[in-house]
Design a protein that fits this description.
Residues 173-189 have a biased composition (Basic and acidic residues). The chain crosses the membrane at residues 6-30, 42-62, 74-98, 110-129, 135-158, 193-211, 294-311, 323-340. It is a multi-pass membrane protein. The longest helix has 33 residues, at 8-40. This protein has a single domain (8-167, 189-340), classed as NCX, central ion-binding region (A middle domain of Talin 1, Up-down Bundle), CATH 1.20.1420.30. Helices cover 74% and strands 0% of the residues. It is mainly α.
Length: 341
């Protein structure tokens, strides 16, 4: 699909429609994933990482892969890293919709903390790879193999932590525990839920491909850098499912699913780089600019602040959200400013 011949308004309209499709499908994914979490017994945090994290990350993965295959490595990298900062900021946005208490207080869990630590570990791999000589084996950097292996090992640890936790957060009146409800009121069968899950995920995947094509056209029409378009526009558009599903999950009381959705989705953002490397000529990490590395480091800083908030568990801040949400939003604004400079 070559959209560069269209007007800027036409490309912007196509981009907006694809983003809307991603957001609408994400609303339904939240409810389906919550039902699957109950029926599988995996728990909301693990299900948020595996089910919703994977499905809502599909558009971003398709964008990074398709743009890398067309030689737009900077756009692929910017999309992945921009999604990281945007999605982390979305936790603070979801916090605004949870009126009972600070979201990080209500959703505190050992698996949520473990997910955040896993994200920091995974994100350190591409940062190290970008700073070292760009060695490839059959056109693929070794880091692109290490990232999914590390993620698989991390999921195994998350499952063990969920099934046999060695410590627990203090329970308060505002803490929302995970409650399994095998019999859902919608009466849908397991196969029906999986079919709906696949359908909504497919919609987001197709829309992600359109976002990639529209982003390439925006680069050509506006003259903006690939990294800037990927970080600010593609990254945010592809992260809309995380925002919508987190808000929807908070409104139905599945606060752990909301946190697991976003942090789990962030881990998939790192794997976008690994997947894109298989389609890029040479090493995708060699395309990371100083600005990209700053974005990645800010994402790590935002995750660290979020983890501190989950540990501190402030019930309510001066503006009804915790200190971590205020800092995370400020850091995201800072990351956008740095990209535009």
């Amino acid at each position: 699909m070559d959209l560069a011949g269209l007007s800027l308004w036409a490309v912007a309209g196509i981009f907006a429609m694809a983003a809307a499709a991603i957001a609408l499908a994400g609303v339904r994914l939240a409810h389906v994933a919550d039902a699957l979490a109950d029926r599988t017994g995996m728990g909301e945090v693990v299900a948020g990482a595996l089910f919703v994290g994977a499905a809502t990350s599909l558009p971003g993965a398709i964008t990074s892969i398709s743009t890398a295959a067309q030689g737009a490595s900077g756009l692929a990298v910017g999309n992945a890293l921009g999604g990281l900062t945007a999605q982390t900021a979305f936790i603070a946005v979801a916090d605004l919709f949870y009126r009972r208490a600070n979201l990080e207080h209500a959703a505190a869990s050992v698996t949520g903390l473990a997910q955040g630590v896993l994200l920091v570990v995974l994100l350190s791999i591409p940062l190290i790879a970008s700073a070292e000589p760009q060695i490839t084996v059959w056109g693929v950097h070794p880091a692109s193999v290490l990232i999914p292996v590390g993620y698989g090992f991390g999921l195994h640890l998350l499952s063990q932590i969920h099934d046999d936790p060695m410590w627990q957060p203090v329970q308060t009146d505002e803490t929302r525990e995970e409650v399994s409800e095998p019999e859902r009121e919608d009466g849908k069968s397991d196969s029906g839920l999986w079919l709906r899950f696949a359908l909504y995920a497919g919609v987001t995947a197709v829309a992600g491909w359109v976002i990639g094509e529209a982003s390439l056209a925006l680069v050509e029409i506006t003259g903006m850098g690939e990294s800037a378009v990927g970080t600010i526009f593609a990254g945010v558009a592809n992260s809309l499912p995380e925002l919508v599903t987190a808000i929807a999950a908070v409104r139905i009381g599945a606060v752990s699913l909301a946190v697991g959705d976003i942090i789990g989705g962030n881990a998939f953002e790192v794997m976008f780089l690994s997947a894109a490397d298989f389609f890029d000529e040479g090493s995708i990490y060699g395309a990371m600019t100083a600005g990209d590395r700053s974005t990645a480091l800010i994402a790590m800083l935002m995750t660290g602040v979020l983890l501190l908030g989950l540990l501190r568990r402030q019930k309510a801040g001066p503006v009804r959200i915790g200190f971590e949400s205020v800092l995370v939003l400020g850091l995201y604004v800072g990351s956008v400013v740095l990209v535009l400079l």
